[in-house]
Amino acid sequence: MEKIKILSVNVSEKKGTIKLPVDKITLKKEGIKGDAHAGMWHRQVSLLGKESLDKMKPTIGRELAFGEFAENITTEGFLLYHMKPFDRLVSGNTLLEVTQIGKKCHGNNCTIFKETGECVMPKEGIFCRVIEGGELRAGDILEYHPKIMKIHIITLSDRASKGIYEDKSGPLLKNLSEEFFSGIGRKAVIENSIIPDDEAQLKALLQLSIDNNVDIIFTTGGTGIGPRDITPDVIKSLLDKEIPGIMEMIRVKYGMQFPNALISRSIAGVARKTLIYALPGNPKAVKEYSDEIFKTVEHSFRMLYNIDEH
Q: Which of the pair, 63 or 51, is modelled with greater confidence?
């Protein structure tokens, strides 16, 4: 667990201006009490590392004061911009959730840019929202807890569940998921299950994963029109919202070359904060479907957790 030292806590009454160090800051659901950036949005608290300030000194040619780039919290001991949205910072009872890395620079319209001639916040500052309030002071320690993605892959196959043949789609999807999340710098814990094409077993397993706050559920198999193909029907009964566009696009993309792909009833959607994707059981199709799904995962989570990137 990384520990990050707070060097200064800073506030300002107006946006776009430097922030001044104070003895302490009080964090509430709306953000920092008395700070211009407080409000019910995702960029309530800004942080910048001394490591970033030190990089700016040669460019600006002078010492830089804490709060000069409008950061609420100046830290030391970790490169903050290596964090990811949904990572968390903890100090005592105070809990912050990372929502954004960097931001758009307003250039000459920004008082900070005018005064310093440069701004490091667009690339190396991070932004958080308050999950649990409290007080923070210079000298306090923030513990860094990276978000670990929880993924459950469920293979539906009467024969594979009996050991008649080896499940290839589930292990392939696990490897593809590990590769994807590793490539974007996220940690993931992945569980694989194999069950028969049984409605009751699937529904119970899906519900358990949703109750356990699994981030993504993938199913493979049972998406056709055969008498035992029940996967999309069971999943649909548990969804709060369906995401039809992903599967529609995949069916059309591959169906233009291979008409049999149009028979797939694959489905995608959301149950609470869990993304659920029903994929065909064919390993080739698993690769094709996952390639398209992974392109949407990060943005989907931002929408689910009410992070407005616009």
A: 51
